[in-house]
Amino acid sequence: MHYAKIGALLLLGAVPVVAIAQNATQPAPSVERSEAREKVRAACGADVQKFCANIERAKGAMRGCLAAHEKELSPACKEAREERAAARGKDKG
Q1: Does residue 10 or residue 53 have the better pLDDT?
Q2: Alpha-carbon separation of residue 65 from 18, 61, 62, 76, 89 (angstroms)
Q3: How many domains would you assign to the chain?
Q4: Cα–Cα distance, 79 to 74 (Å, whole number)
Q5: What pTM does this model have?
C-alpha cells in the first residue's frame, strides 16, 4: 500500500517535468516571424475593425476572419499577410 502511494507521488512529481520538456521542444518564433506578425497588426488594423470587430481573439479566429474577407482586404494588409505566411513557412520547414 505504501508503494502505491509513493509511486503515485513520484508520477505526479514527474508530470510538470514532462510538460516543461514538451514545451522546450517547440521552437521559438523567429525574429522575422515576429516582425511579420507586427506588420500584419499595423497593416490590417482598419480591415480588422471593418470586417472582424466582433471576432474573439482565439487562436486562429482572426486569421480565419481575414481569410474569409481576402478579396475585400486592403492591398497593404494582403501583402503583410503574405509575408507572414512566408515567415511561418520558413519556421516550419
Answers
A1: 53
A2: 35, 6, 5, 17, 20
A3: 1
A4: 9
A5: 0.64
Rg (CA), the chain: 21
Would 83 be classed as within a structural domain?
yes
The whole-angstrom separation of Cα 52 and Cα 58 is 12
82-93 pLDDT, tens digit per residue, is: 999 888 887 776
- Between 75-92 and 31-43, two packed helices, what is the crossing angle to 10 degrees? 160
Q: How far apart are the first and last CA of the chain?
A: 50
- Cell triple for 43: 497593416
Q: Choose among 38, 67, 70, 66: nearest CA to 53.
A: 66
Q: CA-CA distance, 26 to 72, in Å (whole number)?
A: 35
In a domain? residue 56: yes
Q: Length of the chain, please?
A: 93
Identify whether 16 is part of a domain: no
State the residue range of the domain holding 53: 32-93
Q: What cell was used for 87?
A: 515567415
